Amino acid sequence: MKELRSGEISLDIPRYSSKPETGKAKNKNILVDIFKYSLGGLGVTLATNLTMSYLNFFLTDIFGITTFAVAGIMLVSRIVDAITDPIMGMGADRTRSRWGKFRPWMIFFAPVLGFAVFLLFYTPNIPESMKVIYAYGVFIFYSIAITIVSIPYFALVPVISKDSHTRTIIISWKSVMCQVAVLCISTFALPMVNMFGGGQKGWATFGAIVGGAATIFVWIAADGAKAHDISNNTEELKNSSKERKSENNFKILLKTRPLLVLVVAFGLSMFANTLVNSANMYYFKYILNKQNWIPTVMAVSMGASILASMILPKIEGIFGKKKAFIYSTLICVIPLILLGLNPNVTSIYSLLAQLILFGFMYGIASALPWAMIPDCIDYAEWKYGVQPNGLFTATFTFVQKCGIAIGGFLSSFLLGIAGFVANKDQVESSLNMIISLRFIIPAILFVLVAVVLYFYEITPEKTKDISKELEKRRNIA
């Protein structure tokens, strides 16, 4: 192993065997590892998308608590995340075990996450007065579990590869699996809930299935990273100089301007998409009166997102990450504005055409930030001599969860203000609020994303220069 100037230990060691491998063997090994790693995105997204898309609806229309109570749950959970996410990020960075640096968190806490997903959609036989307390407790438990699993998972990308384009390929594969997860939830959630009896029983059964699947896929991802996530307990890793650098990582984070720009843009993007997803069920149920359209419409639009994720490396090669992010985000605005102005669509084909465009462009916009954060980590190593994978990733996932939580909070809170009453004919103010949450407000937020990204300074040329300089330092060290 080579000790870097930053005080970290290089993970670029021979894989699988001490014997030299041919180029084909290496390529085969890394492709298998990338595929296994991408399945973790499937597992994590099954959990997060089920929660983002259906938890608000489940809590109000099935579990039976008010929109204001749901809003409070979303808000309190983010206060918990503000504490646990940075702790988890620093903890992952400092972990040394025979299972590696990031993998042990995935291995041992994946089943905890799976159980938490089940509890989210389970309705216990408790008094009505206890339901809000139960919902608070379970959602906080889920928030902690998803933090412990997802931060180490996302932090593995710079470990698996040091090459910027290869990282885009990794993110592309992961994003395809994430979109597959969204497709599965969007297409099969309601039919499977109904198949298992509907109501409380159906949702509990489906929650258990999703929790079990998430556990298995995260385990497979941990296995795929086995050859890369290696720590050596015989090395002296905790001298005073290294500890000082680790303690200063928060200061480094605040000085890494590209990361700050990226997390603001990503947070706004997640906020916008959460509003879209949170209001989606209400839109089909109360505006269109076409809940039976949901599986078809979501399947086709998510198919477009999967296609976008598959060709992401090509798009990055043509435009670069920053420009591709800006362009795709702005194009997302077009179908949102069109549907916001004319929400009462009578033809499923007209709706499909507009949501296919949105699905394709958002497939690009949602994947690119994950390909850009490793570049920000390299930027910090290049400029400040540290490689804070866990902390930077924790910041990113925290912002992601803030976007989801604020979107869920605002969606529930504004619906309550507008006079929404579950399972009743809605007043005009409630219907207008559903349209605003589903289309108008997200469109405005996507425009803001593009404006913020203008200040992102890591260009393709700069990425190459940073990569060359870091390689020189590693060879010298």
Overview of the structural elements:
- This protein has 477 residues and is mainly α.
- It has one domain: Growth Hormone, Chain: A (Up-down Bundle), CATH 1.20.1250.
- It contains 17 helices and no strands.
- The chain has helices at residues 23-63, 67-94, 103-120, 128-155, 157-160, 164-195, 199-224, 240-247, 249-255, 257-287, 294-310, 312-319, 321-341, 348-384, 389-417, 428-453, 460-476.
- Helix 6 (164-195) runs antiparallel to helix 11 (294-310).
- The chain starts with 22 loop residues before the first helix and ends with a helix.
- Residues 1-23 and 233-247 have low confidence and may be disordered.
Entry summary:
With 477 residues, the protein is an all-alpha fold. The protein contains 17 helices and no strands. The protein has helices spanning 23-63, 67-94, 103-120, 128-155, 157-160, 164-195, 199-224, 240-247, 249-255, 257-287, 294-310, 312-319, 321-341, 348-384, 389-417, 428-453, 460-476.
